[in-house]
């Protein structure tokens, strides 16, 4: 089962705007998302968390692993809460 799918609802509810912005920067840096996807997520403020997790999930296991690792680095508390180890 896809780890991100299993924590999708909690991620959307628990992630903060500053953490999302850092995650987006990391995903862009690692070439998981492109500039267009980055801008799309920024524009959709109310659904930004949903947009980020769904975009990454659709890109597969490697992309999901990058997001999980970035979340561990950026927000270790949420990472532990979501039990993503």
Automatic annotation (TrEMBL):
InterPro entries: CARD (IPR001315), DEATH-like_dom_sf (IPR011029), Pept_C14 (IPR002398). Transmembrane segments: none annotated. One of its GO terms (molecular function) is cysteine-type endopeptidase activity. It comes from the Eukaryota. Residues 1-85 form the CARD domain. Gene3D superfamilies: Death Domain, Fas (1.10.533.10). GO terms for biological process: proteolysis; regulation of apoptotic process; regulation of inflammatory response. Pfam families: CARD. GO terms for cellular component: AIM2 inflammasome complex; IPAF inflammasome complex; NLRP3 inflammasome complex. This is CARD domain-containing protein.
